[in-house]
Amino acid sequence: MVWIPALVEVGLGLAAFAPFLVHRFSVGRWRKQAIEYPTNTEVLPLVTVLLPVWNEALIVKKKLENLAAQNMRFSLLVIDSASTDSTVSILNSWLKEHSDAFEATTVLEMPERLGKTEAVRQAIASLEDQNYQGLLCMTDADAMLPSNAVLRLQGWFADPTIGAVGARALRHQALSGERTHRSMFEMLREGESARDSTPFLEGSCMMWRHKRFSSQQLNVHSNADDAQIATGIRLNGLRSLHDSGIYFEDIAPTSPEGQRRQKIRRGQGLQRLLVSHRKSWFDRRLGTFAGILRREAHFHLFAPVLFAAAGCAAILRWSIITLAGMPNGALAALHGSLALIELGCLIAWLLNRQGIRVPLLTTLGTLFSGMEHLLVAHWHSLRGRSLHMWDQHSDTRIALADSEELN
Ligand code: GDP
Ligand code: MN
């Protein structure tokens, strides 16, 4: 009897894992033909920087100074969602004192907080009303940019086929597992960009052609507004690229629990995005991008469930063995090998959760921790819990406000 759960376990495990290997292999190949940064960057569309804020009194001044230190001029559009601290008054008095910091400045104030995506939607809609023709650069209050970031992103738009570009994250004080997660994440984004487009960009620092994305495309009940925009731009016919040549810096939540919460929230946003575009997974007109969406759908939607099911099959197998005794011959060998693999997976996962790095096991552990977060995100969705409005990780704000290194 024990061979049935063993077979199910192996089958599910392979079904979950194989696409990761396939994508890793494709990405390795794709990355070899990196996209060239345009050289004819003399005439470029104008830039408006969009800054959504909610209760950022601790860091808003630092953010404005950071933006004002960019080596180019642009307009600033801030949208506040009824902050309950002094964000707006700090903002307004800083802007009054530094009236020449930006080309033009607009501050929109929402009467209530409806989540970041709704704020972004309203900001984009306000530019649609003005028939704005330029580029929109979105950035988070807690993201610090090097002084050439906006100019570097703008340069990409000399290429008329490019519709959105995002920067790489440099996350300070992250748990060690996060570094592995980051480098894996970046490699995938780079490969996807080189081949066609990546569906996921980071809203902490990204830019897109305003006219090529409509505010109506945003699902305001979901987060991951940045990935919604990147994917939407590609579905509207232009490319969406991850540029490792430029970065933004921010600070990870200080506790493992905080980092977990942030990842689960992000995961749910990506899951919803992928589900909402399920028709595009098989859209031939999208070429390779449809395949990229299919693989990402596997990683974010199906793989977590398959791994969990494989885990259940393992538990069943162990129960049968405990009750009926160890089988003989070839089955014992199969059982022994499975036990070893399970032990490896379990150790990798548990060490990663504790933030402990061990060579070889780190990548596997990062994968399993990611799967765990996505499974929890599924669970929240099943229970009808949407994470699109979140409590701020105020520890990151305190750390950033105090940081002399980041400014
Ligand atoms: P995290 O990095 O995913 O933890 O998200 P953050 O809490 O850092 O938020 C990213 C950006 O969105 C910051 O600039 C926040 O001030 C802003 N933000 C978050 N929620 C809201 C909201 O409800 N309305 C507006 N206007 N901005 C928001
Ligand atoms: Mn943040």
What does this structure look like?
The chain has twelve helices and seven strands. The mean pLDDT is 94. The longest helix has 37 residues, at 288-324. It is α/β, with parallel strands linked by helices. The radius of gyration is 23 Å and the shape is globular. Helices cover 53% and strands 13% of the residues. A seven-stranded mixed sheet has the order 3-2-1-4-6-5-7, sandwiched between helices.
Span between termini: 63 Å
What's the helix-strand series?
Answer: HEHEHEHEHEHEHEHHHHH
Task: Enumerate how many helices there are, as a single number.
Answer: 12
Structural class: alpha/beta
Give the assembly state of these chains: single chain
Mean pLDDT: 94
Q: Which geometry do the CA atoms define?
A: globular
* Spatial strand order of the main sheet: 3-2-1-4-6-5-7
Describe the main β-sheet briefly. 7 strands, mixed
Question: What key attributes describe this structure?
Answer:
seven-stranded mixed sheet; binds manganese (II) ion; 12 helices; 7 strands; binds guanosine-5'-diphosphate; about 400 residues; alpha/beta
Question: How is this fold's topology laid out?
Answer:
Elements: H1 3-30, E1 47-53, H2 60-68, E2 75-81, H3 87-97, E3 105-110, H4 116-129, E4 135-139, H5 149-155, E5 162-172, H6 176-195, E6 205-209, H7 225-235, E7 239-251, H8 256-276, H9 288-324, H10 329-353, H11 361-382, H12 394-402
Parallel strand pairs: 1-2, 1-4, 2-3, 5-7
Antiparallel strand pairs: 4-6, 5-6
Helix pairs in contact: 1-6, 1-9, 6-11, 8-9, 8-11, 9-11, 10-11
Bound molecules: guanosine-5'-diphosphate and manganese (II) ion.
